[in-house]
Amino acid sequence: MDLGINGKIALVTAASRGLGRGCAEQLAAEQCRVAICSRDSGAAEQAAKEIAANTGAEVVGFSADMSRVDDISRLLAQVRQSLGDPDILVTNAGGPPPGTYASTDLELYEEAFQLTLMSAVRLIHGTTPAMKANGWGRIVAITSISVKQPIASLLLSNMARAGLTGFLKTVATELAPFGITVNALLPGTHKTSRIDQLVQDRAAREGKSESAVAAEMVAAIPAKTLGDPADFGAAAAFLASRQAKFITGHSLLVDGGHYSGLL
């Protein structure tokens, strides 16, 4: 299927690896002109080169920390200078550290708020004026299955991503008249370095081996396998497509059937 986004400018944050990279790769495969970022400038530049070599698309990499206001402002300016105003925005950021209510210090709440919620708010605030002027835009936020089904020992992530979901649902209605869609992708357990971190944390807390914890995670997924970031990226590319113009304010689970609720 031709998704109708050839030549569109896409910005994907935190995209040197994992789910962000999966999204960047799929948008590049659709021949979008793609900007990515990472806190590690070398990792961003290397990922951009690899994605460009694999897809033939124009891909540029920048250094930016999504928890820093100045980094986000600088990133948006660099993308405009290099490629132009983004038509497609995929917001992503590394998750806050694991922890329970009892183990989480108060100062960590503000850090999680800035990283996980406000980074997306700032990116959307910075890109929507041009989208409005053009009468077309696609915003896809990577959140988590935890906004529907909170995950034990991920207190900060559960809190911040739920708040972000409320923001996205609200602005989706405000931006719809301008031809801009706003949706969220809710990943379950995918094969990423974030999952490696969570496996290590849980193994240490429960006194189990990492292999045993990883096996339990897979067993809990009805599909009996970890998610593939490339498949996740394909879902993001569809939500960014011409055909998805009537889908907005939606939170799409990509979880192998893990979520157990009805709604």
Which short descriptors sum up this protein?
263 residues, 7-stranded parallel sheet, 8 helices, 7 strands, 14% strand
Blueprint of the fold:
Elements: E1 9-12, H1 18-29, E2 33-38, H2 41-55, E3 59-63, H3 69-82, E4 88-91, H4 107-134, E5 137-142, H5 155-175, E6 180-187, H6 193-206, H7 210-219, H8 229-239, E7 251-254
Parallel strand pairs: 1-2, 1-4, 2-3, 4-5, 5-6, 6-7
Helix pairs in contact: 1-2, 1-8, 3-4, 4-5, 6-7
Strand order of the largest sheet: 3-2-1-4-5-6-7
Uncertain runs are none
The number of E-state strands comes to 7
Largest sheet: 7 strands, parallel
Shape: globular
Determine the number of helices (DSSP H or I, runs of at least 4 residues): 8
Binned, the helix content reads 40-55%
- Helix-strand pattern: EHEHEHEHEHEHHHE
Mean pLDDT rating: 95
From the alpha carbons, calculate the radius of gyration and give it in angstroms. Answer: 18 Å
What is the terminal separation in angstroms? 29 Å
